[in-house]
Amino acid sequence: MSLGQQLAPHLPFLRRYARALTGGQAQGDSYVKATLEAIVAAPEQFPTDVEPRLGLYRTFQAIWTSVNLDGDIEATGQSNAATIAQARLARMTPLSRQALLLTAMEGFSPEEAAFLIESDVDEVERLVEQAMNDIEEQTRAEVLIIEDEPIIAMDIETIVRDLGHEVTGVAVTRDEAVSLAKAQRPGLVLADIQLADDSSGIDAVKDILAEFSVPVIFITAFPERLLTGERPEPTFLITKPFQRSTVKAAISQALFFDQATVPAV
């Protein structure tokens, strides 16, 4: 099996990580593209003593820490998320955010994350705790949950409230989601894909976004279906079944990059 074939299944998830780290599709994908270009240019430098996924993320980390692609994105007018988050980024070391996303969202163990950021396990655990504390202190919002499974909805609601946010409502259909959003404008939307009446959470989100701008986190058992590169894609994606830490990390990152919640400086 060629190196390209080994890496292909992991690319949708690397793209998820990159956009969560940068706050946008265009910026995140630019770093993934640079990573792949580096691998193609020097395949002999790709790590062979670890599994392909670890090698891919390790190569990405090298690009992330050594190359500044913000200027290229800014030239196309698509760096708004990075600009929005500037005040918060000044308060938080990038390494702590990487440690949080690698463990909580991407599912790497502390040992694997330590390998990826060239650190040790104790430092990774300290960085994750620091990142969660920093982000939670800076973000508060009212959250709309779109989820038709009662137990999952209750679990998400508990997580949201534990983070200090308010829940504006829980919708189980597309029409109910739009109605709740119009009645009380949320600062964040958590949306399942398949809803109770066979309507689509994606369509519900499109209807809401037609009314006003709000950060959205999609919840799905098939994230690769939304990360195809063929259309505008969600910046934040949670894979079912999810861990509570994953939901917390995604909520914190989504609000971290949202203009409406930038604190005064």
From TrEMBL:
The modification 4-aspartylphosphate is found at D192. Gene3D superfamilies: 1.20.140.160, 3.40.50.2300. InterPro entries: Bact_response_regulator, CheY-like_superfamily, PhyR_sigma2, PhyR_sigma4, Sig_resp-reg_PhyR, Sig_transdc_resp-reg_receiver. Residues 142-255 form the Response regulatory domain. Keywords: Phosphoprotein. The keyword Phosphoprotein applies. It holds the Pfam family PhyR_sigma-like. The keyword DNA damage does not apply. PANTHER family: RESPONSE REGULATORY DOMAIN-CONTAINING PROTEIN, STRESS RESPONSE REGULATOR PROTEIN 1. This is CheY-like chemotaxis protein/DNA-directed RNA polymerase specialized sigma24 family protein. It comes from Sphingomonas jejuensis.
